[in-house]
């Protein structure tokens, strides 16, 4: 399936609707405009295997560009709208992008990026940017028929950069692949998320991130209608579910937390009974949070564990999760292995590095060292994202934490996620990061950095309240020894916490990069 098919069979059906503006783009309009932009790409001299960069907020033009690149055999690099000009320049240069397409809302950074890069073209959407040509004006003069050499292009996405500069994930280019070629995510969306042509899919996250981009485009392949939020707001999300009778969505745990902390009367005034499948991923979900979501929305909560690299995936539905609380499921793509630092497979129940076999290991663009580091020392065809976990006797995977964030205090391994999962459920806590900080005697000690709910003032009394809350629920060694307060923790819009930035404050480092 491909949107071009739906343009023929149901041309006037909405491919997507923007939540705030209400702008609707039909399948015919999406097909016509993506064809026009594909002609622009060829006119510029872009050939299959070349690369373009998109630096934009959530916009009705986003998918027109992405589908144009997809049907032109191009790589499309989706750049975070939160970046500075030097960070944009790094990704544009590293990826080998030949053009930069930016939204007018990002004009100040886009102009700076223009000044420090030398690309073949700079195009703007949703308004004018000095030094950029209007893509809409260029597009409208082109034919709406397909280009003569259509073939399958794909995204090239960059890691979130929580441990340094981001690295591009560039799949191998296969010439002459049809634009409607099925893929693994389509099969999983059909079998596990029950995607259909009449599904209504609500996307609350930035489209430059892997999961929102890929899942949205996958549902479009099925002929579903997308509802695109320009920015997540917890009450607005619930209102949209009711308004459009949304059947599917994908969220991150921080969104669950924000909705659960709405006043009870606000939560209960919206009808969410149309939801058939609410998927969450990208970050660990505390058990109490997920219990409350299942109680509220019913057994429609689905979870997966995977990465932009696409080297493996687990999946778990509500029924299985209630029987295996805290699990992220069983493998649905690839085979799972838990290994020690030497690459040896560990027995059931023991925690170690998570590897997948039977899939294509990730290849990080221009970084052979990171590519090699993702391989198992003894089984080089096995690959990892660097996460730590364990598998129970029934084959369900439980994530422990990122290996890089494990705290070693007096020789004892402590995984901060456990304390984070407890503290986030406290009514005064809006967000939390648990980290290891220097300790002369033990090497490291556990500290919580907390963002309080609006209206709650930081104080010694609140600190002690949070420490006691944690001690009542976890072994003492796992609990923070102290709490610091931060007005706003550095969290990516997709839900990922930039824990390195928080940790570096206490270790005297200042070279972290947010992307």
Automatic annotation (TrEMBL):
Pfam families: AMP-binding, AMP-binding_C. Residues 5-359 form the AMP-dependent synthetase/ligase domain. PANTHER family: BLR3536 PROTEIN, LONG-CHAIN-FATTY-ACID--COA LIGASE. It comes from Henriciella pelagia. Residues 418-496 form the AMP-binding enzyme C-terminal domain. InterPro entries: AMP-bd_C (IPR025110), AMP-bd_C_sf (IPR045851), AMP-binding_CS (IPR020845), AMP-dep_synth/lig_dom (IPR000873), ANL_N_sf (IPR042099). This is Acyl-CoA synthetase.
């Amino acid at each position: 399936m491909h949107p071009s098919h739906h343009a023929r069979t149901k041309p006037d059906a909405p491919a997507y609707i923007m939540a705030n503006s209400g702008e609707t783009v039909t399948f015919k309009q999406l097909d016509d405009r993506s064809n026009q932009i594909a002609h622009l790409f060829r006119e510029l001299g872009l050939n299959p295997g070349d690369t373009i960069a998109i630096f934009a907020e959530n916009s009705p033009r986003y998918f027109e560009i992405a589908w144009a690149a997809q049907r032109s055999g191009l790589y499309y690099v989706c750049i975070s709208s939160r970046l500075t000009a030097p960070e944009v320049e790094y990704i544009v240069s590293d990826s080998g992008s030949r053009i930069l397409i930016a939204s007018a809302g990002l004009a100040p950074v886009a102009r700076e990026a223009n000044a420090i890069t030398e690309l073949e073209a700079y195009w703007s959407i949703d308004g004018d940017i000095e030094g950029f040509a209007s893509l809409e004006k260029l597009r409208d003069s082109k034919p709406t028929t397909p280009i003569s050499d259509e073939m399958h292009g794909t995204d090239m996405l960059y890691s979130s950069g929580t441990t340094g500069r981001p690295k591009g994930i560039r799949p191998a280019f296969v010439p002459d692949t049809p634009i409607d070629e099925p893929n693994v995510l389509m099969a999983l969306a059909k079998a596990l998320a029950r995607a259909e042509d009449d599904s209504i899919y609500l996307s609350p996250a930035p489209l430059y991130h892997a999961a929102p981009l890929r899942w949205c485009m996958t549902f479009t392949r099925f002929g579903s209608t997308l509802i695109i939020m320009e920015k997540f707001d917890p009450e607005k999300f619930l209102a949209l579910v009711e308004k459009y009778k949304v059947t599917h969505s994908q969220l991150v745990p921080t969104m669950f937390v924000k909705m659960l902390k709405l006043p009870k009367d606000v939560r209960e005034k919206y009808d969410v009974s149309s939801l058939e499948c609410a998927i969450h991923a990208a970050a660990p979900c505390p058990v109490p949070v997920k219990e409350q979501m299942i109680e509220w929305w019913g057994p429609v909560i689905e979870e997966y564990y995977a990465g932009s690299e696409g080297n493996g995936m687990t999946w778990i539905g509500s029924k299985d999760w209630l029987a295996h609380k805290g699990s992220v499921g069983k493998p649905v793509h690839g085979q799972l292995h838990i290994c020690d630092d030497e690459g040896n497979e560990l027995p059931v129940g023991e925690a170690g590095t998570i590897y997948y076999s039977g899939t294509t290991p990730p290849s990080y663009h221009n970084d052979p060292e990171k590519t090699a580091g993702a391989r198992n020392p003894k089984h080089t065809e096995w690959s990892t994202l660097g996460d730590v976990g364990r598998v129970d006797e029934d084959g369900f995977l439980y994530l422990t934490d990122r290996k890089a964030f494990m705290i070693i205090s007096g020789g004892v391994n402590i995984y901060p996620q456990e304390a984070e999962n407890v503290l986030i459920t406290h009514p005064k806590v809006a967000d939390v990061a648990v980290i290891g900080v220097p300790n002369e005697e033990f090497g490291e000690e556990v500290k919580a950095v907390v963002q309080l709910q609006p209206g709650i003032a930081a104080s010694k009394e609140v600190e002690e309240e949070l420490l006691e809350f944690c001690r009542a629920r976890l072994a003492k060694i796992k609990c923070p020894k102290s709490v610091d307060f931060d007005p706003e923790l550095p969290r990516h819009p997709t839900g990922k916490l930039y824990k390195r930035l928080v940790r570096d404050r206490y270790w005297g480092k200042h070279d972290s990069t947010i992307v």
